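Materials and Methods. Structural model of Multiple sugar-binding transport system permease. The 290-residue sequence of Multiple sugar-binding transport system permease from Bifidobacterium aquikefiri was retrieved and submitted for structure prediction as follows.
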Amino acid sequence: MKRKDWYWNLLFVGPTVCIFSLVVLVPFVMGISYSFVSWDGIAANAKRFIGFTNYVSAMSDTRFIRSAVKTFIFTAGAVVLTNALGLIVALLVTSKMKLAGVVRTFYFMPYLIGGLILGYIWKFIFSDGFAIIGNVTGWKFIFFNWLLNPTFALFALIFVSTWQTAGYVMIIYISGIQTIPQDLIEAAEVDGAHGWKLFWHIKFPLIMPAFTISLFMTLSNSFKIFDTNLSLTAGGPSNATELFAMNIYNEIFLNGNYGYGQAKAVLFFIIVAIFTLAQVSITKKREVGL
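The predicted structure was written out as tokens:
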């Protein structure tokens, strides 16, 4: 590399690396160091080194384990529904569907709404909106306040997350579908491939790169969801929707167990890293080139 090119690369990459280091790497390393101490987060109070005690306590913490189980249930439901719905709509709008552009725009709009605002909007819908619909239709066995029911509250969280993210996933799938050569589709149709056979044997293998990206994004975001969880249910009722990030937040900022909460955060990071890296490795192997 020429010295002049090296200077230009440093000019453009340097600020980004500095910001990433200050915002991500430094806090991450500090968080790991805090996980080995007993501390309430107040700078004036001393930190007491206790080794792996926080990690041992976290692994036997029943509330943390319950939040892990709920997070896995939520993630499984949100990932499957988001990708299925996003792919179905992507296939529809890339076909000869009328008003495809309008459908694409309106379907993508929920993603532009922030998680906190979205949670408050749907909190109003589930409480007041569902009550009105239930009274008008008489279907109160469906249209009741889901957020007050420990079982339905988690389903409500899955529903809202799917509603918000499916539009963004749709855009990724549309990009993948549009890269498929049209002559390849026409040749497959001439050979008798139609409907499900055309999708499963021709289109889906060719959009696997888009599927890898969408699955990675939805998997990592579902594990890390916090803002919608906070504004929609705040972990309730009775901690029925307290997911990983919410549990860590409560441990640090409500209970004042900074070191213990950081240990949970490190375990949380390891779990997310294992699942996302395994997912990318598996789906990458199924990608095919044109």
